């Protein structure tokens, strides 16, 4: 779960909405898992949806405004293993730089980790350096764990964080399942970005 991205969501809804992530069984129990035990009519249907990486979002804003906000919210993020590379990434020969910033070379202490990730480095004036260019990934190929970690270390973002809503509940309408949710396959390669595992689901 991407805590930094969820922190942004919480910040933007500060004072107007509350987000909860916890053990699904505990949250379901609080809502009521049967019509007889539900806190309010229809909440047991929400409780039944709390399986896997799901959370709850509470707000007094109208459902259409809330859903529209979540559908438009996205934030650039780092790709994970299994995501597809959206472009070729080649590290040039010479000192290795964090976030491609000339003022931020990798420290010597990082050299062993960089070697474990597949780079052939040597220390030049205390800076891990490449004698020849190194291709981290090719566009369209699935990333390995090592490639994803290297991309993160050099600051290459190839993913988009989104929050997908499963449905919403209100006293007036009860539980309403959201329609037109994109599948994981449909979320790949949107506008040249990859999402896939970077999406969090939400009951509203």
Short description:
The chain is an alpha+beta fold.
Tell me what you see in this structure:
There is one protein chain. With 204 residues, the protein is α+β, with helices and mostly antiparallel strands. Helices cover 27% and strands 25% of the residues. It has seven helices and eleven strands. Strands 1, 2, 3, 9, 10 and 11 form a six-stranded mixed sheet that branches. Strands 5-7-6 form a three-stranded antiparallel sheet. The protein has a two-stranded antiparallel ribbon with strand order 4-8. Strand 6 and strand 7 form a beta hairpin. Helix 2 packs antiparallel against helix 3. The longest helix is centred in the first third of the chain and has 10 residues. The two termini are 18 Å apart. About 8% of the residues have low confidence.
Share in β-strands: 25-35%
Total number of strands: 11
Task: Indicate the percent of residues in helices.
Answer: 25-40%
What value does the Rg take, in angstroms?
22 Å
Q: Which stretches are poorly predicted, pLDDT < 50 over at least 5 residues? A: 182-198
Structural class: alpha+beta
What count of helical segments does DSSP give? 7
- Main sheet properties: 6 strands, mixed
Shape, per Cα inertia axes: elongated
Q: What's the rounded overall pLDDT mean?
A: 86
Reading the helices and strands in chain order gives: HEHHEHEEEHEEEHEEHE
Question: Which secondary structure elements does this structure contain, and how are they paired or packed?
Answer:
Elements: H1 3-12, E1 17-20, H2 24-31, H3 43-49, E2 54-59, H4 63-72, E3 75-77, E4 89-91, E5 94-95, H5 111-116, E6 121-124, E7 127-130, E8 134-137, H6 145-154, E9 159-170, E10 174-177, H7 184-187, E11 199-203
Parallel strand pairs: 2-11, 9-11
Antiparallel strand pairs: 1-2, 3-9, 4-8, 5-7, 6-7, 9-10
């Amino acid at each position: 779960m991407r805590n930094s991205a969820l922190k942004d969501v919480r910040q933007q809804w500060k004072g107007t909405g509350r987000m909860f992530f916890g053990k699904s069984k505990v949250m379901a129990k609080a809502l009521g898992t049967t019509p007889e035990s539900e806190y309010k009519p229809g909440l047991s249907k929400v409780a039944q949806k709390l399986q896997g990486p799901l959370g709850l979002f509470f707000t007094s804003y109208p459902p259409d405004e809330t859903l529209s906000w979540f559908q438009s919210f996205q934030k650039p993020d780092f790709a994970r293993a299994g995501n597809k590379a959206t472009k070729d990434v080649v590290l040039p020969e010479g000192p290795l730089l964090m976030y491609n910033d000339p003022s931020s070379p990798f420290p010597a202490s990082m050299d062993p980790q960089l070697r474990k990730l597949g780079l052939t480095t040597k220390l030049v004036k205390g800076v891990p350096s490449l004698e020849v260019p190194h291709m981290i990934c090719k566009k369209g190929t699935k990333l390995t764990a090592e490639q994803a970690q290297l991309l993160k270390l050099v600051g290459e973002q190839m993913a988009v964080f989104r929050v997908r809503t499963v449905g919403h509940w209100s006293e007036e309408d009860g539980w309403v399942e959201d329609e037109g949710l994109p599948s994981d396959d449909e979320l790949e390669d949107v506008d040249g970005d990859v999402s896939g595992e970077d999406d969090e689901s939400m009951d509203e």
